[in-house]
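Handout for the seminar on molecular recognition.
Each group receives one record of this type.
Step one: identify the two inputs.
Step two: read the structure output and locate the region that could contact shikimate-3-phosphate.
Step three: write two sentences on what you found, then compare them with the reference statements printed after the record.
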Amino acid sequence: MKISPARRIKGKVRLPGDKSISHRAVLVAALANGESHVQNFSTSQDCASTLACLRELGVSIERKGNDVCVAVNGSLRAPAKSLDCGNSGSTMRMLAGILAGQDFAATLTGDNSLQSRPMKRIIEPLEMMGARVVSQQGRPPLRIEGHRPLEPITYELPVASAQVKTCLLLAGLFANGRTEIRETLGITRDHTERMLQWFGAPIEIVQTREKRSSTCAVVGPVGLTAHQVRVPGDFSSATFFIAAAALLPGSELEIEAVGLNPTRTQFLATLRSLGAKIEITATREDCNEPVGTVRIQGPASPGEMQEGSAITIEGQVADRLIDELPLLAVVGTQTPGGLVIRDARELRLKETDRIAATVKNLRAMGAQVEEYEDGLAIARRARLQGARLDSYGDHRIAMAFSVAALLAEGDSEIFGSECVAISFPEFFDCLESVVER
Ligand code: S3P
């Protein structure tokens, strides 16, 4: 994909349904008695992988555009073949929790990227609960031999991961007693807790006052009842538009009906701390998730947005920005004092090694970047040059560097840009609809 520099961003967008929430909506619906309807279901390939796996498990799924009807006839059934999770770590880790509580065995597999991702983080606790998981030295394919009922456990997450938390909460639905999950390294996105509550499950949540740690618990076995879900626009998809508008002088952008769950919106606070003009209006709760409109005004002149010196993203703030860090590194090339990202080792374990991919692409564009094991540092503002960039098959790298290409001098070429479909197939069309050159 060739991308030319932009003058500014102008207009209004409404984004497809949130990927994280869509996965959870249909996974939970597949465990609920009756027929559930999910509106504005994510258009991502990842969520299509979740639907395909559920179909293999005997769940009736009817999809008309972005509306999905999910119904189960009694319980899940043993799949006739391996469940293909494609590129989706969320599908594999979250579905594993459900499979652990079944009275059959199933195999979860995926593409080359997914097959290289660490699964010990779910294998260990699921085995503590009584399931048996056969892996390839902690990596997929995973053969999960379910056990009924599971043993409830109290478990402190060794990595700040919403996928692991979700896996265990879903397994907890099939346990006899109280499954408690403690997050002491940072509080991750809470869409599963909210979705389970929306479907009528009693989920207990206790957070420390300064919100540095949190415990959630479910007492199984839990019966769920079918429900309607409206999925808000995907905040992570919105961030690419927000960054472009916040950096390009004269921009004015409105993003309607986007999810504003506080476990996802750290990016807004970080951009505001750099001087970005962001306004939030029309906030409301929809299906137990906060939703609203985000308005962004670009700087009046180049360089006006960023005040102050270098900022450092580290600790729990880095966890809360985990999907936005490559994009934030791009933003960091436009701040006078540069930007430092630390404590982000997990980025190396995503769809690709996102630290290495970000560093290589930024250097190709002429930025001065230092690479650390757990992050990177951008020394100072750079005049980005159009370049030949690589997505490394990773959707968030492709989209972050599309934003970089809009800011650059001269055209850029992004190889493997079709991978944006993993989370946001309409990305380039949507971007072109608000770019002015
Ligand atoms: C996700 C959790 C995060 C995130 C991923 C989606 C989720 O992964 O990076 O894109 O929907 O729960 P981890 O749980 O591995 O941090």
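Reference statements: The longest strand covers residues 277-286. DSSP finds 14 helices and 26 strands in the chain.
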